[in-house]
Amino acid sequence: MMMFLMESAGVLLAALFAMSAIAKSTDPSASADMMRDLGLSQRWTGAAARALVFGELVVAVGLVAGPLRSLAADAALVLLVVFTLAVGVVAWSGRRMQCGCFGTSEEPQPGQTIIGRNLVLGALAVLASHRPHDAGQVNAGWAVPITVAAALGVLVLVVMLVVGLRTRALGPEMASTSEPVVRDGGQIVVRRTVGDPITLAELTPNLPVLVLFLDTACPGCVALLDRPAPDRRGDVEVVTLVVDPTGARPDLQGRSDVIVVTPETFTDAAVPGTPCGMLFGPGWQLLGEPLLGGRAIGFALAAAVA
């Protein structure tokens, strides 16, 4: 029974890590957003996201390769512990974050939710890492994984409790700022890579205006950028701001329908992920919540012809 559980834990963990790596590789912007939420500089988010995909694939392969299963399970546990500690730091400040664990840009989640999920995965890693050498050791072999899993569970529960108390102690003021809030969109500074900084209000006096925040590392963003620029017939002005941290799209500099900006522009605007759309109305007040993913792209296409 013990061996069956160990084998099953390894196979399940391998499947989860493989699914996560494949999903991240098809939507690298989600991983980059997660790295940004964890405090990593925009300059390094792309490289860190690619390294994470490679690491998860190596772990997944190792978990299904018999001789390497224990080592791969230990590596999985290390990744989970490091990620859990990083999430704990973010949650301590009262902020939410996008997990991006399976490549899709999600709504920001409380840190406790992500930590609890990591607890389950950590227990699987502990179980998969212990491999008795013969059947006579199987019964005795229960002691080590159960003890380690129990200790890991207690540690994570304590972290969740402390973070929860910390979030409550911060009070409603901090809770209300855990989501992106833009009080005066006209004062957002557009830091162009070519030209002087300018506020949105100076850039376009026309309201309402839909501001699109795109990243060349985001496949959905690139697809939108590569569409022919439609004739603007609607009442909604559209401003497209793009970050190109790796310089992969030098052609964007010569286009009149997009503005290439520095990552600090997105930070100032509290952009929760890409693609993102923010609709500003009278007085440059944000109308509704920021639109993410497919909703942002769909709204942008509709605004272009409405």
Which features characterize this protein?
5-stranded mixed sheet, 7 strands, single chain, 9% strand, alpha/beta, 11 helices, two-stranded antiparallel sheet, Glutaredoxin, 306 residues
Structure write-up:
With 306 residues, this protein is of the alpha/beta class. The chain folds into two domains: 2-176; 185-305, 3-Layer(aba) Sandwich (Glutaredoxin). The protein is 55% helix and 9% strand. The protein has a five-stranded mixed beta sheet with strand order 5-4-3-6-7. It has a two-stranded antiparallel ribbon with strand order 1-2. Strand 1 and strand 2 (198-199) form a beta hairpin. Helix 1 crosses helix 5 (111-129). The longest helix has 34 residues, at 143-176. The chain is elongated, with a radius of gyration of 23 Å.
Unreliable stretches (pLDDT < 50, length at least 5) are 134-143, 168-181
Gyration radius (Cα, Å) is: 23 Å
Indicate the percent of residues in helices. Answer: 40-55%
Report strand order across the widest sheet: 5-4-3-6-7
What would you call the shape? Answer: elongated
Oligomeric state of the chains present here: single chain
- Total count of strands: 7
The string of secondary-structure elements, in order, is: HHHHHHHEEHEHEEHEEH
Percent range for β-strand residues: 5-15%
Report the total helices. 11
Structural class: alpha/beta
Query: How far apart are the first and last residues' alpha carbons, in Å?
Result: 63 Å
